User: Which sequence fits this backbone?
């Protein structure tokens, strides 16, 4: 909470929606697994699958199929389907 938080209003909301009969236990989410090293991935298969995409919505299925992290996928096909954006570089408007 912040210093300016209306604690009374917050507590009223908690009371309104809480259930004393429930024993909720909140656990932190497990740590994310480290990405598979690039050398162990099928980069050629990823690039082939990327070339066969007909809709951007197929992207997440593609990276799931190859076990590739999103940013890693961009890097693995760089130059063919993606390119690095320089720090501070802004895309130019076409208008």
Assistant:
């Amino acid at each position: 909470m912040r210093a300016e938080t209306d604690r009374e209003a917050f507590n009223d909301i908690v009371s309104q929606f809480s259930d004393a009969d429930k024993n909720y236990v909140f656990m932190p989410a497990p740590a994310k697994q480290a990405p598979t090293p690039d050398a162990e991935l099928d980069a050629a298969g990823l690039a082939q699958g990327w070339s066969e995409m007909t809709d951007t919505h197929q992207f997440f299925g593609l990276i799931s199929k190859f076990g590739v992290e999103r940013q890693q996928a961009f890097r693995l096909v760089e130059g063919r389907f993606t390119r690095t954006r320089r720090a501070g570089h802004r895309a130019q408007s076409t208008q």
About this structure: Helices lie at 7-17, 43-51, 59-66, 70-76.
